[in-house]
Amino acid sequence: MTNNTITSHKEFKMPVLKALFDMGGKGKTKEVIAKIGESFELKSGDLTNTNDGYPRWHAAVRWARFTLLKEELLSKDTPRGIWSISNKGMDKLVSSIDVEATRNAQTALPVDPPMKKDIPVSELIPIIRKKVKRSFWDKLLGRNK
């Protein structure tokens, strides 16, 4: 934990995308929040409860989801309580990787024919996981601590 401030919901946007990716592209609300809580460095103010009794950071993550939906980075056509990353969200997540990680990924990718653009994210994630080195995913998901 860091100082006694509160994390903005905007700071949870990429962790939501990363968590969903790590979960195979979609997950239940509680599972996504728990996944973020495993790796996100929360501030002490985030741990205070809101009027509904939940930690403040849970509300911030839900607001981040709302923003991601408006930006079309999450799919809008999912059942209640299910969060799902969209193709646009996958693009955003991949583009957020630094140059070094991108170079590592390029050396790991074999040359394949171009993929169709209409493949659902849930089918793309296993394909991408097989083609990219583990060190790349560790860097992408913030696991190289």
Radius of gyration: 16 Å
Name of the CATH class: Mainly Alpha
Main sheet attributes: strand count, strand direction, barrel closure: 2 strands, antiparallel
Helix content: 40-55%
The strand count comes to 2
CATH superfamily membership: Winged helix-like DNA-binding domain superfamily/Winged helix DNA-binding domain
Number of distinct helices: 7
Strand order across the largest sheet: 1-2
Strand content: under 5%
The helix-strand sequence is: HEHHEHHHH
What is the terminal-to-terminal distance? 16 Å
Instruction: Using the alpha-carbon principal axes, give the shape.
Output: globular
Second-tier CATH architecture: Orthogonal Bundle
Low-confidence segments:
none
Explain what the structure shows.
The chain has 145 residues and is mainly alpha-helical. It has a single domain, classed as Orthogonal Bundle (Arc Repressor Mutant, subunit A). The chain is 50% helix and 4% strand. The chain has 7 helices and 2 strands; from the N terminus they run H-E-H-H-E-H-H-H-H. The chain has helices at residues 13-22, 29-39, 56-70, 87-95, 99-108, 121-131, 134-140, and strands at residues 26-28, 82-84. A two-stranded antiparallel sheet has the order 1-2. Helix 1 packs across helix 2 and helix 5 packs antiparallel against helix 7. The chain is globular and about 45 Å long. The two termini are 16 Å apart.
At a glance:
By secondary structure, the chain is mostly helical.
